Backbone:
């Protein structure tokens, strides 16, 4: 009986947390159509989330594209299919690896930063001060970050896809002996508009998840340094899991037939 009671309590706790997160999501979206809009906070979030994420996105995509080319060449050699390296690198980066890797990098870099920043503001009672000044915390802290991440992530994914394909191109032409012109032509011919559209849509969804989860954990953190640390860790874990889950459902929606 104790075991069943523990399972029931855990289920109730999970459902309560899901309900609180759903309400938080609804409140954030509702503020999108209600003035005022804090343009300064939005611009700062664009720079923090987009521009300063470019180095980690570029390096991650470049090395992943290179490693992917080596793996496909090695695996393809087992059944005399080494020539498919350009096509598989392109479709692998654009459909899956590009958006997922960028999403996880943003979860590690941006979600943790947002959760720690907002949790610290809560601990130091800066959020209470905002309320005292008649400034809604969700409108000032959450909405600009979520909107900026949703808009910037497709651009980051596009950059990651391009650099990842370039990494595969360099390895294939300089290390594996592929012809440069043929490699580029095969890449361009193989990619379809749906591949690119799915990549960008995934980026927007992953950006929304990463920023929203970071804000939620920051807003609901416990007091004290331990509360800030717990909120940061929980935000990164939750955002990573939700991004991977969303990737599965989006892939199912785009390519199920």
Residues:
């Amino acid at each position: 009986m104790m075991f069943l009671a523990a399972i029931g309590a855990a289920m109730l706790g999970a459902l309560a947390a899901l309900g609180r997160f759903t309400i938080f999501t609804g409140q954030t979206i509702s503020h999108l159509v209600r003035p005022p809009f804090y343009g300064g906070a939005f611009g700062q979030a664009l720079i923090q989330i987009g521009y300063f994420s470019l180095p980690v996105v570029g390096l991650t995509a470049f090395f992943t594209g290179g490693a992917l080319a080596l793996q496909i060449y090695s695996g393809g050699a087992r059944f005399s299919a080494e020539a498919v390296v350009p096509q598989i690198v392109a479709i692998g980066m654009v459909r899956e690896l590009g958006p997922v890797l960028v999403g996880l990098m943003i979860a590690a870099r941006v979600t943790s930063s947002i959760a720690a920043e907002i949790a610290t503001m809560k601990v130091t009672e800066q959020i209470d001060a905002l309320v005292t000044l008649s400034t809604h915390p969700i409108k000032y802290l959450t909405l600009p970050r979520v909107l900026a991440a949703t808009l910037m992530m497709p651009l980051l994914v596009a950059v990651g896809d391009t650099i990842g394909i370039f990494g595969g191109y360099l390895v294939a032409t300089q290390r594996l002996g592929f012809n440069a012109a043929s490699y580029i032509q095969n890449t361009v011919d193989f990619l379809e508009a749906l591949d690119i559209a799915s990549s960008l849509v995934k980026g927007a969804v992953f950006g929304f998840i990463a920023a929203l989860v970071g804000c939620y954990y920051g807003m609901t953190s416990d007091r004290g340094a331990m509360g800030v640390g717990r909120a940061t860790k929980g935000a990164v874990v939750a955002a990573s899991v939700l991004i991977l889950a969303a990737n599965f459902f989006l892939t199912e929606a785009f390519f199920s037939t």
Summary: The chain has nine helices and no strands. The mean pLDDT is 91. Residues 107 and 210 are 5 Å apart (CA to CA).
